[in-house]
From TrEMBL:
Keywords for this protein: Dioxygenase, Oxidoreductase
Organism: Geodia barretti (Barrett's horny sponge)
Annotated protein name in UniProt: Gallate dioxygenase
Ranges for region Disordered: 8-27
MF (Gene Ontology): ferrous iron binding; oxidoreductase activity, acting on single donors with incorporation of molecular oxygen, incorporation of two atoms of oxygen
Segment forming the signal sequence: none
Domain Extradiol ring-cleavage dioxygenase class III enzyme subunit B: 69-303
Length: 331
């Protein structure tokens, strides 16, 4: 029987791999964002958000000293998770992440999609405007091909169907598709390969959630139920292997919402479905929608205990834009 021995969760924002001196530049580019969800739940452009925010409080969060301090916190937490992943000696890693029209496009975007091909392409990172013309720290510039576990992936698909989850499935990545991942797996998964798998590449099963795009975003309760069904599917695999599950994404962004993040973390630590269902739905959209990935892992690891390794609210502009980085383990 497969044994689910470890859960991990990590933000995957490019800001994690951007040197501290590049954060203000990312904040400048936020001025062009037209749909920023404020901590009040109101969606607006940058200027309107700036007019509503607590400018004096945020001014203390966007100094170069703060940028450097939080950058170092992030790197320490990434190293911690990477070591946990390495030390666990996993045979398979189930990865739960969102696809932002990188592979799954509007021609067919299921709420849940399990990949069960023999390998995945991880697109190399190219310098561009979003990174100030510099390659991201720790990212490969060339395309990579990473192994997956197709037989275990098929088993998970079959067991989820038995659990009445009508999941989408994909057995190959189409290089002809016009998504941003250049025919490869999306950045939620690329982050894991580039920043967390520092040793030998672990065979994976990528599970893609449509956290971003209405009208078929799964509810927090449905995500939690999916996690429970995944745990059952893993436990029913007859091979004696060690399995981990990882959530990639979150926490609140593109506006940092510390109250939302703490409510989500508290609900997961308490193993409280009621607290997770109570999260304000108008706020878990856009980048903050990736909290759903964490909820799936929380549902899958109810037999384990969650530890928040670090919570790092990385502000980058006077309007409070940025990304709140979260790092957690279940053991």
């Amino acid at each position: 029987m497969a044994d689910l021995v470890l859960g991990l969760a990590s933000s995957h924002s490019p800001q994690l791999s951007t040197p501290a001196e590049g954060w203000a530049g990312r904040g400048e580019r936020d001025k062009g964002h037209l749909e920023l969800i404020g901590t009040d739940g109101i969606t607006s452009n940058f200027e309107d958000l700036l007019a509503r925010c607590d400018a004096s409080r945020i001014a203390k969060e966007i100094t170069q000293e703060k940028f450097e301090q939080r950058h170092q916190q992030n790197q320490k937490a990434i190293s911690h998770l990477s070591k946990k992943l390495h030390d666990a000696k996993l045979d398979v890693l189930v990865m739960v992440g969102d696809d932002q029209q990188e592979y799954l496009l509007d021609d067919n975007m299921p709420a849940f999609c399990v990949y069960w091909g023999d390998q995945v392409k991880v697109a190399g990172h190219e310098a561009g405007p979003s990174t100030g013309g510099q390659h991201l720290i720790g990212y490969h510039t060339e395309d990579q091909y990473a192994p997956t576990d197709s037989s275990f992936g098929r088993h998970i698909i079959e067991q989820l169907m038995e659990s009445e989850f009508d999941v989408g499935r994909s057995s190959h990545l189409d290089p002809r598709k016009g998504g941003r991942a250049k025919g490869g797996i999306g950045h939620a998964f690329g982050y894991v390969y580039n920043r967390l798998m520092t040793g030998d590449t672990i065979p994976t099963i990528p599970i893609m959630l449509n956290t971003y795009y209405p009208p078929n975003q799964p509810t927090p309760k449905r995500c939690h139920n999916l996690g429970q069904a995944l745990q059952e599917a893993i436990a029913s695999w007859p091979k004696d292997i060690r399995v981990g599950i990882l959530a990639s994404g979150g926490l609140s962004h593109f506006v940092v919402d510390e109250e939302l993040d703490q409510a989500a973390l508290a609900g997961m630590q308490a193993k409280s479905v009621e607290q997770l269902i109570a999260l304000p739905r108008e706020k878990i959209n856009s980048g903050s929608s990736e909290i759903r990935n964490w909820i799936v892992v929380a549902g899958a690891t109810e037999q384990l205990d969650m530890t928040v390794v670090d919570y790092v609210p990385c502000y980058r502009s006077p309007a409070g834009t940025g990304c709140a980085m979260g790092f957690a383990t279940w053991e």
